[in-house]
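Sanity check record (used in CI):
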Amino acid sequence: MLQTRFTKLVGVEHPIVQGGMQWVGRAELVAAVANAGALGFITALTQTTPEDLAKEISRCRDLTDKPFGVNLTILPAIKPPPYAEYRAAIIEAGIKVVETAGNKPQEHVDEFKRHGVKVVHKCTSVRHALSAERMGVDAISIDGFECAGHPGEDDTPGLILIPAAANKVKIPMIASGGFADARGLVAALALGADGINMGTRFMATKESPIHQLIKEKIVANDERETELIFRTMRNTSRVARNAISTKVVAMEKEGAKFEDIRELVAGARGKMVYATGNSDEGIWSAGQVQGLIQDIPSCAELVSRIVREAEAIIRNRLEGMIVQPQREAAE
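Expected output for Nitronate monooxygenase:
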């Protein structure tokens, strides 16, 4: 068993996390991750109202007695969701760990900490990680350029970002972006992280609540099948390459503003991708790690395989490379 500062902090067996994913982080997936000994997060804003979130937390509790958390992503919006009400629903439900992401979460961190909730903040740069640490979060999820969703604007890949953050961040840290297997876990631990966060990999599992055709699409795709949209608006998002994302990128190159692409990138259309299985229906998130995903296992199979193979890499491959220098024969 691999025990790290992060597993001790949140009380799980394995240093593997399924972070928040819009439309995907639902009870059936989160419970399966939890039952596998990893840490899953329900995505709060996938639920239409705070009351719906409370029901989803209850549904998850019916499926597992293991620890799980809730993701609360704070993003700029014309009509912001009632964040304080979602936060209250999380606290009232007795959730003990929350993943925050997006804009400075100080008021949320303060309120969660006041109620004994541990906070993991997801960020895409060392400076933001240090800022979150000063805010009092309990752990950092550092997200490299390879990731699905929002990689920030620095374009720093995980191989640099993880050790750069580990050099300065004192609290436990999990590595996000580009992780799907045991090799990634071992690499993250070697780079200074205390575990890994996987999104796209958990989308392609039996318990993932998305259409089978999308799971199969993830398996079929290679590492080149993503696009970076909203680059010109400095709100970069990595999504699966399809007819819509390719069109959006082309329109941006021609100077399109958000109003020009609003209908193409609407969240309702992206939600339909997961419901209908039509991968060209709208924009949907996927990382470059698609190139490492070859099957659709259960969460239990996936987590146990990663941990088992990681231990084998450490014990056999890495230890086997250490050779004691032979002493020169005595003259």
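The chain has a mean pLDDT of 96. If this sentence no longer matches the regenerated tokens, the check is flagged for review.
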